[in-house]
């Protein structure tokens, strides 16, 4: 069974940890850069919103690179490296909203990330080997 098919149940079954509040603007200039790492890991994203989500990796200088879009209720498994920094942009009719950062905390680690709306903002909740 793939992560994508398990994520809705996981999101309901676990008390997930929320990161800081979503910014009411797109991800950009103040993005945290990813550190050099050769420690393979994996991160999974699940879009629990009614809007498209763009998955973004922060390169070694803090520039954001798109790793694809997620439709509502869609998930994505992504190979990465421990410490590499990821963001998600939620594309709403009012504009793009940045959520993150998040990274896998250790070699061989696995981090599951769930994007949802809480009140009037979007939040990133995560479980597993995640750091913020």
TrEMBL record:
<dbReference type="Pfam" id="PF01847">
    <property type="entry name" value="VHL"/>
</dbReference>
<feature type="signal peptide">
    <location>
        <begin position="1"/>
        <end position="24"/>
    </location>
</feature>
<protein>
    <recommendedName>
        <fullName>von Hippel-Lindau disease tumour suppressor beta domain-containing protein</fullName>
    </recommendedName>
</protein>
<dbReference type="InterPro" id="IPR024053">
    <property type="entry name" value="VHL_beta_dom"/>
</dbReference>
<dbReference type="InterPro" id="IPR036208">
    <property type="entry name" value="VHL_sf"/>
</dbReference>
<dbReference type="InterPro" id="IPR037140">
    <property type="entry name" value="VHL_beta_dom_sf"/>
</dbReference>
<feature type="domain" description="von Hippel-Lindau disease tumour suppressor beta">
    <location>
        <begin position="36"/>
        <end position="87"/>
    </location>
</feature>
<keyword id="KW-0732">Signal</keyword>
